[in-house]
Amino acid sequence: MIEIPKFQGTKQENYELCLKQAKALISGEKNSIANLSNLAALLNQALDEINWVGFYLFEKEHNELVLGPFQGLPACIRIPIGKGVCGNAAKDEKTYIVQDVNAFPGHIACDAQSRSEIVVPLVLNNELIGVLDIDSPNLSRFDETDQFYLEQICEALLAEIR
Q: Which of 72, 69, 73, 107 lies closest to 87 in space, CA to CA?
């Protein structure tokens, strides 16, 4: 069993450690479900002030995201592309940071406790694979530092899938 300590440095230091641990967890493992599961667990343990972290995987034939490995309360199973924060991040293939989910048009409320959200698309060889979704019960929880490091973690994941 791998022990993941609670981080106690600055936000940037914590993310640097998290990135190193993420790379170590997935290094050499080609099974995407195993890697997604470990990354969801790592991020759930490493990040403070969050209430849900997980992945939605793209189903091309239905043009929707389907729930993948996650940590938190049960979640919405299917999200159409272009709907909610996840669906829009997937459609636009860009990271969305939403400071107040109640102010986001068409937000899909899977957990009424969630107040802010960040969604990072997973794109490999110009094809959408899915998204990383993280929710917080606090307003304005996520910023550019979160975006930078979460995108780095997703890039490390995609490098293992290639």
A: 107
The burial class, CB within 10 Å (0-12 / 13-18 / 19+), for 79 is buried
pTM over 0.85: yes
Contacts of 144 (CB under 8 A, 6+ apart): 97
Lowest mean pLDDT among 28-32, 68-72, 155-159: 28-32
Whole-angstrom Cα distance, residue 81 to residue 15? 29
- Whole-number Cα distances in Å, 91 to 51, 119, 135, 158: 24, 12, 19, 18
**What's residue 111's pLDDT?**
76
The two tokens of residue 68 are 């993948």
User: Phi-psi category of 51—alpha, beta or left, where left has phi over 0 and alpha has psi -120 to 50?
Assistant: alpha
User: 117 burial class (0-12, 13-18, 19+ CB within 10 angstroms)?
Assistant: buried
